[in-house]
Structure formats: structure tokens, C-alpha cells
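Render this sequence as a predicted structure.
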Amino acid sequence: MAVAVVSASGKPLMPTSSYRARKLLKGKRAEIYRRDPFTVRLLYREDGETQPVEFKIDTGYQHIGISVCSEKHEFVHEERELLDNEVKMHDGRRKYRRTRRNRLRYRAPRFDNRRKPEGWLAPSLRNRRDMHLQLFRRYTEVFPVTDAWFEMGQFDTQVLKAQEEGRPLPEGTDYQHGERYGFDTLREAVFSRDGYQCVFCGRGMEEHAILHVHHLGYWKGDHTDRMGNLAAACEKCHTPMNHQKGGLLYGQEPELKAFRGETFMTAVRWQMLAMAREIAPGINIHATYGAQTKASRRELGIPKMHANDAYAMGNFHPRHKARGVKYKKLRRCNRVLEKFYDAKYVDLRDGTVKAGKELGSGRINRREPRVSAKSLRKYRGHKVSKGRRTVRRQRYAVRPGTVFLLDGKRLTSRGVQHYGKYVTYRDGSGKTISVAVKKITVVHQPGGWEPV
């Protein structure tokens, strides 16, 4: 395993082996400079000779492949998996923020005078772009990189969609005459496509059905407004209860997959290259495409993997390859500081305890009556617990997933109690136990990149 090396002045030098790095650290000739990637700083050398080194990255929406190579050796061969619930976490934070604003006082709308700055990206896309650039900066600071290769994909989502549906490829004015051509609003286009009928029960205008636009993939975090993810639903089907697990709407699949990865690359590819040149002006930045990477990978005879795609890029393909490593991104902290816990009731029908939303009125706006034929409030029996909301006002030293030592045993925390004074964990029988924080020794905090 290669270990990155920097001089006493911080200049990146050629990597060394883990065996030699241990010798240098044990002999007090070097010190630990960085943990990820593991880097040592020489205490006896200010400068040194270097060779050309290439940094190669296979960019992606969910997975990133990285390879750092010289002409004879590959030093890094790894795959990074990004967070998959970024949009969901932002939606949760937005929901609680709107609730707090509405609870304080009435505020006049100010959204008409807001302008998005040039180069604005959605938070989920910006997070993924920044992760690529963060990894690029992290490796170029400790490796003597002379050239960097980024795989930049360019996708035509109209063509991809036509291929998924088995339709002829779009040509000429087909790009202008899309699914919404001739309709003023998205709502009108969805209703017209579904024949002004509920796709779940078949009720339509003749039955005086009130139609709503429903997002089919809401249950798995897909809230995109593409036509394939939208459907017409009547007021009897589009209820809060049907959105829960076991409901009519839960588990419905969109007609077509979401082209999130393709949209991401189309939106950020040139912006990413420009920012990479600003980060490392002394490095030659190159852009390559998936077709070139695929041809090179086939010529080298290596299987399809994100790290192998990165290895196949560039000019250096050494026979001495590094051991492959895979990391997964973990969230460091929960951005939702306020949480709501619903009240619990005894269901009069079967005697089970259920949340208040499971025994709700079924209305989706305040104009509807709370007592109606679809209301389940009449089945609420004894209230087991009141509804409450909690606001986290400080960051605790121990979080869920923290590894700690207690009486020589290595344990994992499930959370904290009493404003962070006690930590909870489970013993061998599955029982939850609480112990004072001052009695434990923290070994590892969750978050960041964890090996898989």
C-alpha cells in the first residue's frame, strides 16, 4: 500500500511503501501529516526529485472512481460512494423551517424580488460537485500530480427517454414538441394525458372527481416533475393514509427512471473543470469522455468498475496496480434540528396503538371538513402519548454510531439522553442500557468516509 509523502516544507514528494513509512515514523524521521489519504511529513528533507504523476477521476452522480498513477506504479485505486438521501434531508429541513415561519406571524411574500446568482446549482447537485473537487484537492496536495483527467459525460436526455420507451429517436422539431407542447401548465398536460381520470380508481369528470397531480415515486424520494413520475389521482385516492406504508399510493413505480446522473453531468461538467483549474493552476487539466474510457478499458482487458474506468483514463497504465479500496460517505450530523413526534392513540377497531396521522381526517387542505366519510378520527380511542416537538440546541460529543470503550469493551452508541449526559447502547440480549458519558472513552466518531 502506497503512503503519500511531503517534505518538511510541505512539498509533495513521490509516495513510499507502508513498510518504509513505519520505519520513518518509528525512527522519528517523519511524522503523521494527514489521515485521509494517509500521509507522512519528512523531518530531515526540504526538497526532493519527483516524477510525472496522473490523477484520474471517473465522475458520477452516486459513485466516484479514483486512480493515481505514475509510469510504473499505481498508488491509489479506490471507489467512493456518495450520500443517497441528500434531497430527502433538504426536504425535511425545508418542511420544518416553513412550519416555524408560519407559526411566528404572517409575513408578506418576498420571493418575487429574489434572483439566483450566476452558476447557481441545486443543493444536491452542488454537494456532489463539491465532493469531486474536495477529493481532487485532497490528493493533489500530497501527491506530485502533473496531469489530471476528468471524465465528462454529455447526455441527451430526450434520446435516452426515447430509447427507454422504444420510440423513434427525436429529430429536428421533435426537441421543441415535447410532452407539454400545446399546454399552458404541467397540471393540464398530466390530466390530458390520463384522460381526465384517476389512474388508480378510474373516476373522472363524469363522477365529479376532483383530480390532483400525484408524484408516483414520492415513497423513495423521487419528487421530480417529469411527466413519467406524475399521475392524475382523485380526492378519494390522494389521501394522507394512502401515502403511508400499505396504502394505495405507496410503492407505485414511475414509468421511466429518473436521469439524475445524466442531468448532473450535463449541468456541472464545465463548471467542475473551471473550478479544478482554479484549485490547482499548476496542473494540466484534461477532459475525456465515456466512449474513450470504454475503448481503453476493453483494450486493457479489465472489468467494468468505477475505479477501473479511472485507471483506464490518461496516458499511464502501469502493470503494478494498487489494492482496491471502497469508501462510503456517511453523514456527520443531522441538519434537521427540530423533530416532531406524533401523538399515539388506541385504534378502536383492533386495539393496536397507532400514530395520529394513521387515524387522521384524510383531508389535504383546510377547506375540506374534518369530519367526513373518509375520516378515521372516529376510531381514535385512549390517547397513549401526546404529540410533541423537540429542538436540538447544542451539538453533543457522543452521537449515534460513536464507538466507545466501557470497562474494556468496545461498544457502539445508539444516542444520548438527558441533554447529552448519558449515552445509550444495546447489550448482547438486545436490551437498551444507559451509562454516564464521563465513564466512557470515545474511540471513533461516525461520519466522513468509512471503508466498506
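Summary. The CA atoms of residues 210 and 234 lie 5 Å apart. Helices lie at 18-26, 86-104, 123-140, 157-165, 186-193, 260-279, 290-300, 306-312.
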